[in-house]
Specification:
The structure is a single chain. The protein is an alpha/beta fold. The chain folds into two domains: 177 residues, Dna Topoisomerase Vi A Subunit, Chain: A, domain 2 (3-Layer(aba) Sandwich); 75 residues, Arc Repressor Mutant, subunit A (Orthogonal Bundle). Helices cover 40% and strands 18% of the residues. The protein contains ten helices and twelve strands. Strand 5 and strand 6 form a beta hairpin. Helix 4 packs across helix 6. The longest helix is centred in the middle third of the chain and has 17 residues. The N and C termini lie far apart (59 Å). The C terminus is likely disordered.
């Protein structure tokens, strides 16, 4: 059995559940790219793959994750090639795709599924869509991320496993093509498996809600945003957008515009006066 997840924290969470149920034990494969942001036009073409890598280089340049694109940390194309090879070599092998109700997992699922169409009947989906679970305090909650589920709850979650249908292998890749053709940079989960798209500046106004007339570290601003904002994304993307807002003259800055702990931001003086 091979388990596929879409976030690093999901790996450890799922791994812990194996100790409670040996029947679930298997290899865990992580799709590491965040397909909820960035260019996806003609995404399976080698040139488009390189275009996306270059986009990530620009996003991460001069920040906390500078150089990550080229250090071998992320190579999802190789990951899928290895996965397909395993499925071809062992006809008894099956795959469980785990996805919680968030744009990151669903975007990753859409990117992945068409590449596994030759193995229909051996690919299973466990989609935690508006399903209640019990947290460590014994309260019912609806997890937005796989890693927030206690290990014992994975035992219940495995009952959700169902084969990806022939219809899904046809319709879901078409939906991904539709999203590619829209050529936008931000994907948001509207419900179920429905993604809607916006321009790259989608998060800018949401970031502005947490910027005041007082200086605050970019790291603190991003941390607050990730804890309180209705719509969230990765801190590297937010740092890139914040730097872009500074370059556009929308914010005041002091310090070195590099890592998120290296500089502070506040509203422009005119903005602060209007806000007051």
């Amino acid at each position: 059995m091979i388990h596929i997840v879409f976030q690093e924290a999901d790996v450890a969470a799922l791994q812990k559940s194996f100790d409670l149920d040996e029947a679930m034990r298997g290899d865990i494969v992580e799709i590491k790219d965040d397909f909820a942001v960035g260019p996806i036009v003609d995404i399976y073409n080698p040139e488009a793959v390189e275009t996306r890598k270059q986009w990530w280089r620009e996003i991460l340049a001069g920040g906390d994750y500078d150089g990550l694109v080229d250090d071998g940390h992320v190579d999802d194309q190789k990951t899928v090639r290895n996965l397909v090879e395993k499925l071809k070599n062992d006809e008894q092998e099956i795959v469980w795709i785990w996805a919680a109700q968030n744009k990151h997992d669903v975007s990753g699922y859409y990117w992945l599924i068409s590449q596994l169409k030759d193995f229909q009947g051996r690919i299973f989906l466990l989609y935690l869509n508006n399903l209640p679970f019990i947290n460590e305090k014994g309260s019912i909650f609806y997890p937005e991320n796989l890693f927030s589920i206690p290990p014992r709850e994975f035992i219940k979650a495995k009952k959700l496993a169902r084969p990806v249908t022939l219809s899904e292998f046809e319709i879901d890749p078409d939906e991904w093509i539709r999203l590619q053709n829209e050529n936008k940079g931000v994907r948001i989960l509207e419900g179920g498996k429905k993604l809607v798209q916006y321009d790259y500046n989608f998060y800018d106004n949401h970031l502005m809600k947490f910027i005041s007339s007082d200086w605050q570290k970019a790291s603190r601003l991003i941390h607050t945003f990730l804890n309180k904002a209705a719509y969230k994304t990765g801190d590297a993307f937010l740092l890139w957008r914040l730097k872009g807002m500074i370059d556009a003259g929308e914010l005041d800055m002091q310090g070195e515009k590099k890592n998120m702990k290296d500089f502070e931001v506040k509203m422009k003086s005119a903005q602060a006066t209007i806000a007051e």
